[in-house]
Amino acid sequence: MCDCRKPPAESVSVVPEVTRRSVFGVAGGGAVVGVVTACGGGEDTANGGDPTGSGNGADDAAPGDVDAPIASTDEVPVGEGAVFSEHEVVVTQPEEGTFRAFSTRCTHEGCPVDQVSDGQIQCPCHGSRFSIEDGSPVEGPAESPLEEIRIRVDGDSIVLA
Ligand code: FES
User: Fold this and answer.
1) CB-based pocket (< 6 A), ligand 1
2) Is residue 143 part of a domain?
3) Is residue 86 in a domain?
């Protein structure tokens, strides 16, 4: 556990005459940068904290990376879809060869939608269901559509556009 209030030993020895109070009062000083760096390591939450990945070779992409592969086309069944939680994206295929993608964030209270079944995107928290064609709510309590995510098909890969 990092004690961010305690300056690292090297900053004290590099600037021995600087008091702790003056170090934290100086904006942009080298000692301040050292403190920030010392507190920044060890935790990776950029992908939602899921270190397991999906095993599809697209695990290096972070949510929002343009041109990042998020799935392969054969992972998305026709008339259904699949949730790629590591990318916070649900990809659907309403008709063969037509792919759509939406944010997994439910528009009701923000739970992540967790599956596509019976031809609808499902939220586990309060039962909202969304269209696989346009993300619109089919059954409440959500009243707004899921945010659409721009994608394109590149060979067998679905990538963020
Ligand atoms: Fe999805 Fe409530 S958060 S239905």
Assistant:
1) 106, 108-111, 123, 125-128, 141-142
2) yes
3) yes
pLDDT at 66: 67
What is the CATH classification number for the domain harbouring 109?
2.102.10.10
pLDDT for 61 equals: 52
CA 63 – ligand 1 centroid, Å: 21
Helix (H, G, I), strand (E, B) or coil at 90: strand
Pocket test for ligand 1, best of 105, 114, 126, 143 (most atoms within 8 A of CB): 126
120-154 per-position pLDDT tens digit: 999 999 999 999 999 999 998 999 999 999 999 99
Q: Contact, 57 vs 68, CB < 8 A?
A: no
Q: Is the pLDDT of residue 49 over 50?
A: no
d(CA 120, CA 7): 53
Whether this prediction's pTM lies above 0.70 is answered by no
The residue whose C-alpha atom lies closest to atom 2 belonging to ligand 1 is 126
